[in-house]
Automatic annotation (TrEMBL):
The lineage of its organism: Bacteria, Pseudomonadati, Pseudomonadota, Alphaproteobacteria, Hyphomicrobiales. It is found in: Periplasm. One of its GO terms (cellular component) is ATP-binding cassette (ABC) transporter complex. It holds the Pfam family SBP_bac_5. One of its GO terms (biological process) is peptide transport. This is ABC transporter, periplasmic solute-binding protein. GO terms for molecular function: peptide transmembrane transporter activity. Residues 107-449 form the Solute-binding protein family domain. Belongs to the bacterial solute-binding protein 5 family.
């Protein structure tokens, strides 16, 4: 048998590296490589190469302290209700998922040993053995069924209830095997189960403030809107985490967050404003910028069911008024790609490259505003630092509006409470959407008629039917064609303007090691606490 590796790529190397970090056994790694086209005799060679890549030897010990940018008294350790990045970080540290997305965007197994199907409608999930919750309870099929069925209960208020609704049947085949039946075929199920909301909790849990999961850290402190502290899970089923404890809190003001990093109070300042980058870079080798472009965006939302968004010409005028290139250059300091007013980024396989961004055309904008009778009126636009670079974007749009006689009254409100009090509520306001791995998830969360985060209240029966059709198709090219058309519909019909896909920048101390990019967003897809370490 020769040592040739066929159809093996750098992304496959990345997959093996990620699996090693996740605690995969040698047998599991060899099975993974055989499936990818590696000859058995080449296994040691690949494992050695991957092992060397991982072996920037982690150091054990220390307290990791990090700051995000958003917090609320509604902060939660209930994965089903998580809505802020702060929630995601905490859920990733206290719980595990059945699967996770590696840095190449490929679903890998976590609490599940395998997630298999023959028809994309009936799925069999085989669980790992020997996994326990923080309270000592063994992980069983009942925990998985309870965790998934919760999303279907309206009283829970799950943020992914619309996505979970496709799961119509659950059966415990035995203590370590679950059968999931979907209403219709969906080949994306392993990717869906990789979302932060689908963390597995213990059967019957009602008090989520305890954070009783199977994850790397055991909750010691949780104060909503203030901070959380997790202690290393000494009975963790994987190797790790590397640090002894992990404290996480939010510093909403960008400058204050960066200064906390520079003064040594924290090891990571999440999602810093481009204006702060030069300050960090000027500090020399002691600090590092970690950049990720994975589909995160800040958007301007006009509710179509409220004035002025109920006037179609106002929405059209705003879309011509937004100078997307200037926003990338000035508001984002070049850290982004020009957007085309729909949420599927160029990094995604299903992105429609033929859908060109709306051209900046003040005269066309003026025509539509005159038609809508809006010139001379004052239009409130709610902006906040809670939505990354929203204030800078608002200033650019406001200046363009003033030149054609439209008065945009930019109302800058505090970051604290923004998501509870203004997002989804104000007639014209900014949002900030974290990366999602599939068009189905993005459209289900944000644009279907019953989407929980339907920011502009976009309603289209045709769109809803296309969403179901694409979800059930096993023909990749057919799915791509449907998703391409849906992107055109969102860009032309919805009341959302997505001027750019933002490159997320986390600022870290050079002592923090092991941080990698992930398609689910910055801070290593919000799961960094389990994998990083602190150099002495």
């Amino acid at each position: 048998m020769n040592d040739k590796i066929t159809n093996w790529t750098r992304s496959d190397d990345a997959m093996v590296e990620t699996a090693i970090r996740r605690g995969a056994t040698r047998r599991e790694l060899l099975q993974m490589m055989l499936a990818g086209g590696a000859a058995l005799s080449a296994g040691s060679l690949v494992l050695g190469r991957a092992g060397n890549a991982v072996a920037a030897t982690p150091v054990s010990g220390g307290t990791l302290r990090a700051a995000g940018w958003s917090a609320s008294t509604a902060d939660t350790l209930d994965p089903a209700k998580a809505s802020l990045s702060t929630d995601y970080v905490r859920c990733c540290s206290f719980y595990n998922r059945l699967a996770f997305l590696d840095k190449g965007g490929t679903p890998q197994m976590e609490l599940a040993e395998a997630i298999e199907t023959k028809d994309a409608k009936t799925w069999t999930v085989k669980l790992r053995k020997g996994v326990t919750f923080h309270d000592g309870k063994p992980l069983t099929a009942d925990d998985v069924i309870f965790s998934l069925k919760r999303h279907l209960d309206p009283s829970v208020g799950s943020k992914v209830a619309k996505i979970a609704a496709q799961m119509t049947g659950f059966k415990a085949v035995d203590k370590q095997t679950v059968e999931i039946t979907l209403a219709s075929p969906n080949a994306d199920l392993p990717t869906i189960l990789s979302m932060h909301h689908f963390m597995i909790v213990a059967d019957g849990t009602t008090d989520f403030s305890k954070g009783n999961g199977t994850g790397a850290f055991v909750r010691e402190v949780f104060e909503p809107g203030v901070r959380s502290v997790g202690i290393k899970n000494k009975n963790y089923w994987k190797s790790g985490p590397n640090v002894d404890s992990f404290e996480y809190f939010a510093i909403s003001d960008d400058s204050s967050r960066v200064n906390a990093l520079l003064s040594g109070d924290i090891h990571l300042a999440a999602t810093i404003n481009p204006r702060s980058m030069r300050l960090v870079e000027s500090q020399g080798a002691g600090f590092v910028l970690s950049k990720t472009t994975s589909g995160n965006y800040t958007n301007l939302n006009m509710r179509l069911d409220m004035e002025p968004g109920s006037k179609r010409d106002f929405v059209e005028g705003m879309k011509y008024l937004v100078n997307r290139e200037q926003i990338v250059k000035s508001a984002l300091r070049g850290l982004g790609e020009v957007g085309n007013d729909q949420p599927v980024s160029p990094a995604n396989f299903y992105h429609n490259p033929d859908l060109k961004p709306r051209a900046f055309d003040p005269e066309k904008a003026k025509f539509h505003f005159e038609k809508a009778g809006m010139l001379g009126q004052s239009i409130p636009v709610v902006a906040s630092d809670a939505a990354n670079s929203a204030v800078d974007m608002a200033m650019i749009i406001q200046a363009s509006a003033a030149e054609i006689g439209l008065k945009l009254d930019v109302q800058r409100v505090p970051a604290d409470g923004y998501w509870d009090n203004y997002w989804l509520k104000a007639p014209v306001h900014f949002g900030n959407i974290n990366p999602r791995p599939t068009p189905d998830i993005l459209f289900s969360l944000l644009y279907s008629s019953e989407a929980p985060w339907n920011e502009s209240q976009y309603k289209s029966e045709k769109f809803d039917k296309m969403l179901i059709e694409a979800r059930g198709s096993l023909d990749q090219e057919r799915r791509k064609a449907i998703y391409n058309e849906m992107q055109v519909m969102v860009a032309s019909e919805a009341g959302t303007i997505i001027p750019a896909y933002i490159s997320n920048v986390d600022a870290i101390t050079a002592k923090l090691k092991g941080l990698e990019a992930n398609p689910l967003g910055g801070q290593m897809g919000y799961a960094f606490a389990e994998y990083v370490w602190l150099e002495a």
